């Protein structure tokens, strides 16, 4: 549905400023019906990328194809037409203050030349879909942030687009409202089959709804893949720092400071054990403890849901030497992975 190939975007020099290459050598494919997220820090090039996909910017090199149409070759009038099959939602909602919720949603239909009756027939079910049937005649100032974004989503869907682009759509919302809006986007994707490309700087957004993720840094995509895989085995340092921001896998500070890299007589080994799947493997700990007659204590533990699957981490401490060897045997038998973080006395 969206294909970005070998894209470079350089903003030309202006008013004494040198040209800025915001994106280089970017490849990204989004299949029909997928939810794909692009995550990056401020200035990484996310907005530039999404503006290329909705035709607001043109690539300097490479191609940007949406639903089979290469946007890089279109004239302005053709671009306007192509944009009708692309809906977009924004961080600050971009609603018109002097228009009611109904009239904001109606706007793209008015621009497309629909008559009043067709507009009513389309807007009402959309307001229903986003849970705002009772707010049709409210003005933006009378709505909460979450409700405003619901209006934004209904407006983006008005012209029946195949693609929905989301530019930090939940960044201005509190965590609970963010969850509700993300659930709504997931529903829109599931019920209407709309392909969603979203950009964000929050890993929690990526983990909540995307099927695949691309990590962008300094204008290039440094890592991409299925969200669960990228989350549970991040390879690039940028990805690792995003992941640790939500999974909290760092050791408690007091223990981290005492951690030694090598075993010494009488030291306890700290071992990180990773679960992927149902989480029921946790029973293995008591089994090893029983079968191998070793004492284990849990230093830290956490189970998250990532892209609809369970991902857990346990950090346990066990006597170095034979105890550690027994633990590693048991972990391998249970089909899990472990890593020795170090030793403490
Ligand atoms: N119109 C422009 N002219 C010149 N440089 C630009 C322009 N727009 C963006 N840039 C530069 O391109 C780079 C990428 O910016 P972009 O806005 O795409 O990043 P971003 O990841 O969306 O950041 P943020 O999350 O802060 O919005 C930055 O160095 C920025 O200064």
UniProtKB/TrEMBL annotation:
Biological process annotations from GO: amino acid transport
Entry superkingdom: Bacteria
GO cellular component: plasma membrane
Gene3D superfamilies (alphabetical): 3.30.70.260, P-loop containing nucleotide triphosphate hydrolases
Keyword Cell membrane: yes
Role according to the record: Part of the ABC transporter FtsEX involved in cellular division. Important for assembly or stability of the septal ring.
Name assigned to this protein: Cell division ATP-binding protein FtsE
Origin species: Georhizobium profundi
